[in-house]
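Title: [Solved] Hemin uptake protein HemP 3D structure

Original question kept below for reference.
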Amino acid sequence: MPRQADEPQAPSTGQDDARQPVSSRELLGGRRELQIVHNGSIYRLRVTGNGKLILTK
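Solution (posted by the thread starter after getting help):
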């Protein structure tokens, strides 16, 4: 049965978005390296000469 327009919609948990793939091109924005801050530490995501991704702390 379709949902009525006036029915409240459950808040998004973000889980659906977390499962959606993100292009490395979109993430890196044309750069070869990206610094990511996670729990107070800096990580480097970089593209190797062979086109692979490496994440290092």
